[in-house]
Write a structure and sequence with these properties.
By secondary structure, this protein is α/β, with parallel strands linked by helices. It has one domain (about 5-375): Alpha-Beta Barrel (TIM Barrel), CATH 3.20.20.210. Helices cover about 40% and strands about 15% of the residues. The two termini are about 15 Å apart. Keywords: Methyltransferase, Transferase. It comes from Eupransor demetentiae. One of its GO terms (biological process) is methylation.
């Protein structure tokens, strides 16, 4: 459970919010060359300030900027590092019946931290907005494993990678150091809560994904070992008062999904060995499997149950949520559990198929239900 003023808070959010229409129009005008960057930034600033007010009014203690400055939940972060550029590709990501925009990230030099990284600048603004409020500003970034997976997505990306890195270990050193430096820069800017968003484990939990990678389970284990090593190296030797969590997702694009499968195939590595303080886990549909794999979560670590879907407006029944929390408590101590939506509401500009009013109704459901469950 996230702690706020050393008290247990059993409700939370994943972080992204639907982009307001005003912000969408401003972004489109900028993309079309009809406005200047400063005009877009001004509207982003104003909309983020308004969002924070709404988060506080909703009773949230851990707040985000809604990812209003991002186009993607992950690619913008990758593009922000030195040595990685934005490219356009032939195919987008394949979701359930939907294909995304055709963009990716490709190495064009040695990877290193950029002191003007957009995530750092975004947090610096959020910190200024929240510094006099009784809340904790959180910064979400995609995991190092997710970045590596993108850099080897397709033959062209692999070819570019090999051009700059003859030895994979040199790539791993540079990538994890760039992440470590970003995290320390965020800490120096006042950040005390960082979440690593990560779809790699969700893909590895999907046996159909295995078929596209290899028929050899040993190869899958090598991937798990690599992802675990990249993530743990990036978050090693950090300040004790910096909370590091991870959110595991199976895809969240325009209310669709990309992968299926319970956590069993990855539980031992993800839960047992990733050195984070908390796991934010998707559990809103049967696609995520049962709670059994949570037995691998070490004692004392937090699990935030994503039992409320952010993909559709229908509100879950509080009594059903309470029942599922009780089931999960058979594997993780009740007091180490919390409640959230299964993902954000807009992992990309497109957003899920809800209205802003429905979005806030979902958050109210999370806050009210959690207070009822853990007040008993």
């Amino acid at each position: 459970m996230p702690k706020f003023h050393n008290e247990n808070i059993h409700y939370d959010i994943v972080g992204s919010f639907l982009r307001p229409e005003r912000l969408k129009r401003a972004q489109q005008a900028f993309d079309d060359g009809q406005s200047h960057k400063t005009e877009l930034q001004q509207i982003q600033d104003e909309e983020i300030q308004d969002l924070v007010k709404k988060e506080v009014a909703a009773g949230l203690k851990f707040v985000s900027d809604g990812e209003f400055r991002r186009s993607w939940w992950h690619l913008d972060t990758f593009w922000g590092f030195k040595g990685i550029k934005k490219i356009f590709v032939k195919e987008g990501y394949q979701f359930h019946g939907v294909e995304t925009r055709k963009e990716s990230a490709q190495v064009d030099g040695k990877i290193a931290f950029n002191p003007k990284h957009p995530d750092l600048e975004a947090f610096q603004f959020l910190y200024q907005v929240t510094k006099d409020l009784d809340v904790v500003p959180r910064q979400s970034i995609p995991s190092p494993a997710q970045c590596y997976a993108e850099l080897v997505r397709g033959e062209d990306n692999i070819k570019a990678l090999n051009q700059y890195y003859e030895k994979q270990e040199d790539l791993f050193d540079d990538l994890t150091k760039a992440y470590h430096d970003l995290i320390l820069a965020l800490y120096d800017a006042g950040c005390r809560d960082i979440k690593l968003d990560d779809c790699t484990w969700g893909m590895l939990a999907d046996k159909n994904f295995w078929k596209t990678m290899s028929a050899d389970a040993g190869d899958i284990q090598k991937l798990k070992d690599l992802y675990l090593d990249l993530n743990n190296r990036a978050i090693a030797d950090l300040p004790d008062d910096l909370r590091i969590s991870t959110h595991v997702c199976r895809g969240n694009y325009a209310s669709t999904w990309a992968a299926s499968g319970g956590y069993g195939p990855v539980a031992n590595d993800l839960f047992g060995k990733e050195k984070v303080d908390a796991f934010y886990l998707e559990f809103d549909t049967p696609r995520s499997g049962n709670f059994g794999p949570l037995k691998e979560v070490p004692a004392g670590k937090e699990v935030v149950l994503g039992l409320v879907t952010s993909k559709e407006p229908k509100l879950e029944k509080p009594e059903e949520i309470a029942k599922r929390v009780k089931e999960a408590s058979e594997y993780v101590d009740f007091n180490n559990l919390s409640l959230s939506t299964q993902c954000g509401f807009a992992s990309t500009d497109e957003g899920n198929h809800l209205t802003e009013e429905q979005q806030w109704a979902k958050i109210k459901l999370v806050v009210d239900t959690a207070k009822q469950i853990w007040s008993k």
